[in-house]
TrEMBL record, chain A:
NCBIfam families: beta_helix_1. Residues 1-19 form the signal peptide. It comes from the Bacteria. This is Right-handed parallel beta-helix repeat-containing protein. Residues 71-213 form the Right handed beta helix domain. The keyword Protein biosynthesis does not apply. PANTHER family: F-BOX ONLY PROTEIN, F-BOX ONLY PROTEIN 10. Keywords: Repeat, Signal. Pfam families: Beta_helix (PF13229).
From TrEMBL, chain B:
Residues 1-23 form the signal peptide. Residues 159-338 form the Cytochrome c domain. This is Cytochrome c domain-containing protein. It comes from the Bacteria. InterPro entries: Cyt_c-like_dom, Cyt_c-like_dom_sf, SO_2930-like_C. Keywords: Heme, Iron, Metal-binding, Signal.
Length: 396, 340
């Protein structure tokens, strides 16, 4: 044991001793200087971006393991992509064990920061903003880790994404916390992913606050083991501004927390206020599909104790006025389509569409108050969230 | 079955036969194998010694020019392609896919704009097969056209395309090379797949002992300039294979899209037919499906080919202008599909 401890210590201290620091300043040639540093860096190196505004015309990319890119704060170091002329995102990361922290990115033409196949990545105190606010021609995703194992998103702020502010796709072992998602179509979206913890975030002024989706026809499917807890999900009432082709274009204005086609999702200790369609919505995948590997139903979704301030008082649903009237002027806060399995542990008034078949739409609905059972066993929290090593990196 | 290339043999014979015959420069110049194999990034293209006359793109011995039946569109650039194999080695044929180039090999591709006297070499991209894998490096030509220097961060150059469009041409940075050349985390060549090389070139390379044997399934993709003689489907599928499938395939940069545009893919859904986009964002425009049979204007795939705006345009890299010919080929294919 002692020997192991010592060698671990040596490993841990090796990086700082030999690591190099690349200091980058804004101004003439920043594009080339920064990109060169991103290429020439070696594992353990740190790229330090001085405060200021960097005018960038092309997407940046990082493909070296173990590099830290550190700015002087999300209000101090701003990578400005307003005049971007090429590439699909502001920064693309394709290597493992990367830490991105303390800088901002404004107006990227496509996505903000995309990390693909980049295991154990940390996004810490990053800001991605489309400065004109909600607009269909803003980029799709602000923070976009995909096909990765080990993702920690902590203290970020995302505004104006025409799809999702924080989007984690086809990944495993994920934590999204302490972050603010404002005025995006989807605030935070966990898609086709497993073992995700979404906690202590603020989702406000989005079309939908926090979405947990599983979609067909993708290399990675079978999303589940997700905890959505202790989030402030308020006033998500921005009209949907996504281009129609996207799945989030179907998200109704005023959706708080939405689960679609996932298994084992726990929603607890959130504060939900001012989400006029449905504070909590649990439904099956709505489109027809023919992917045999795909399960379109929500299974084992648990709504625990949450604080609801109002329910669906202005639902963007077909027949919304009639529904409201039928439920006494306001829809109860938890909406289920009646497919798959839903459990309720706390005080959670709800209603069900009582659909009996996936993909038939609201036409077949037989709305009635929700009668959901309590779960048979405690929710299994094991293995959910980013590996502890990622959190340890924040204190360096 | 993707035939239709037999009638094109004569044409490709004309093209490739002459090129190989011309590639016999003075015998005293050879490639610098150390530059390819050693660690480090040579700062100048001349360090490799690929060319006897760089400005004329005249190669030294063992550097062989080749062309692709259907090439990747690069804003209309003329592309001069060469393959080098070190002495004592042989290129191995393995089916219709990539030629298996031994360690020490190099692929060299020069991008040029302008005709005749006005031709200017803009950049040369090299792929080096080192002991630990392939390495992709971009080199930028100087004003005097005497040499090209390493530009790891890439560059932008104002130029006019053959169609007369004034563009800001992007030389990719070293990482962006990998965006197209990445497969399963490794850098790999894309171009020299046997199915996209002319049968005559392959025969000559085999006859000369450069390639070990004739590959199975070579020379399937139509010659792009003669695509009118191929089937509409072959022309479009060849275009998509060459221009899109290096990313849109399992294990590559756009794998998460679930779209697989390789020549050999037969599953309609994987090819995008009535497939919904996943992470297209505003790239989808107002459209719902990648390909709507019989309705090209409702197809996201074509929509993204038809724009040059970053964030929407496909491919994401190496494109400042729309490839009208490619658009037409893909449009015809989608238009001819049975509507559902």
């Amino acid at each position: 044991m002692i020997r192991i401890a010592i060698s671990a210590l040596l490993l841990a201290s090796a990086a700082p001793v030999f690591a190099e620091t690349y200091s980058i300043e804004p101004g003439e040639g920043a594009q080339e200087r920064l990109q060169e540093a991103l290429i020439l860096a070696e594992p353990g190196d740190e790229i330090v971006l001085a405060a200021g505004r960097y005018e960038l015309t092309d997407g940046l990319s990082l493909d070296v393991d173990g590099v830290t890119v550190r700015g002087a704060g999300m209000d101090g170091t701003v990578l400005d992509f307003t005049t971007q002329a090429g590439a699909g995102e502001g920064l693309l990361v394709t290597s493992d064990n990367v830490t991105l922290r303390d800088f901002a990115m404004e107006n990227p033409k496509g996505d903000g920061i995309k990390s693909k196949g980049a295991d154990n990545i940390v996004y810490y105190r990053i800001r991605v903003t489309w400065t004109r606010g909600p607009h269909p021609e803003n980029g799709a995703y602000a923070i976009y880790p995909v096909e990765s194992t080990g993702v920690l998103v902590d203290g970020v702020k995302v505004t104006g994404a025409s799809d999702a502010g924080i989007y984690v796709g086809q990944s495993d072992r994920i934590t999204v916390r302490n972050s603010i998602a404002e005025a995006n179509v989807a605030g935070i979206e966990i898609e086709n992913s497993r073992n995700a913890l979404v906690e202590h975030n603020i989702a406000t002024r989005n079309t939908g606050g926090i979405l947990v989706f599983d979609l067909p026809d993708l290399p990675v499917m079978g999303g589940g083991n997700v905890i959505v807890a202790n989030n402030l999900v308020v006033a998500n009432d921005t009209p949907n501004f996504a281009p129609p082709g996207n799945i989030v274009a179907g998200v109704r204005r005023g959706t708080g927390i939405m689960v679609m086609a996932n298994e084992d999702v726990l929603i607890e200790n959130n504060i939900l206020s001012g989400n006029p369609t449905a504070p909590v919505m649990v439904i099956a995948y709505v489109q027809p599909y023919d992917d045999e590997r795909y399960n379109p139903l929500p299974r084992g979704v648990v709504v625990g104790d949450n604080t609801f301030d109002g329910g669906g008082y202005d639902p963007q649903l077909e027949g919304g006025e009639l529904l409201k009237a039928a439920f006494g002027g306001e829809l109860p806060p938890v909406m289920w389509d009646g497919l798959g399995s839903l459990y309720v542990t706390g005080e959670a008034p709800g209603w069900s569409l009582n659909l009996t078949e996936q993909g038939v739409g609201l036409g077949a609905a037989q709305p009635a108050p929700l009668a959901a059972p309590t779960p048979e066993a405690a929710f299994d929290r094991s293995g959910i969230g980013a590996p502890a090593e990622l959190e340890a990196r924040l204190s360096r | 079955m993707k035939l239709g290339t037999v009638s094109l043999l004569a044409a490709s014979l004309l093209l490739t036969g002459t090129v190989i015959a011309r590639a016999t420069p003075p015998p005293e110049q050879y490639v610098n194998d150390a530059a390819i194999m050693d660690d480090g990034l040579p700062r100048l293209l001349s360090a490799y010694g690929f060319f006897a006359d760089a400005a004329a793109q005249e190669p030294v011995p063992h550097v062989y020019p080749y062309r692709l039946n259907t090439p990747l569109y690069s804003d209309g650039a003329e592309k001069l392609r060469f393959v080098y194999r070190p002495a004592g080695t042989q290129i191995a044929a393995s089916g219709e896919g990539l030629l298996d180039l031994p360690v020490g090999s190099a692929l060299i591709k020069t991008f040029a704009f302008g005709e005749g006297e006005d031709r200017r070499l803009i950049e040369t991209r090299v792929l080096l097969h080192r002991a630990d894998g392939w390495l992709a490096l971009p080199y930028l030509w100087n004003e005097e056209q005497t040499d090209a220097r390493l530009a790891v961060a890439g560059a932008r150059i104002d130029l006019t395309t053959p169609r007369g469009e004034d563009i800001s041409y992007r030389v990719p940075n070293k990482n962006q090379c990998k965006e197209c050349h990445g497969l399963g985390g490794e850098v790999v060549p894309i171009g020299p797949k046997a199915r996209n090389l002319s049968g005559d070139w392959l025969k000559q390379m085999v006859a000369a002992g450069h390639i070990d044997r004739m590959p199975q399934g070579g020379d399937q993709l139509p010659l792009w300039e003669h695509r009118g003689k191929a089937s509409v489907e072959d022309a479009a599928r060849a275009y998509l294979d060459v221009n899109c499938a290096h990313c849109h395939r399992p294990g590559a940069t756009a794998s998460n899209s679930g779209l697989d545009l390789r020549w050999e893919q037969e599953d309609p859904r994987a090819l995008g037919i009535m497939k919904r986009p996943v992470a297209a964002g505003r790239g989808a425009g107002d459209l719902l499906f990648d390909i709507v049979p019989g309705d090209p204007d409702a197809s996201i795939l074509l929509h993204r080919m038809m724009v040059s705006e970053p964030g929407v345009a496909m491919p994401e890299l190496g494109k400042a202008t729309v490839d009208e010919d490619g658009v037409e080929a893909v449009r015809k294919w989608i238009a001819g599909m049975e509507p559902r």
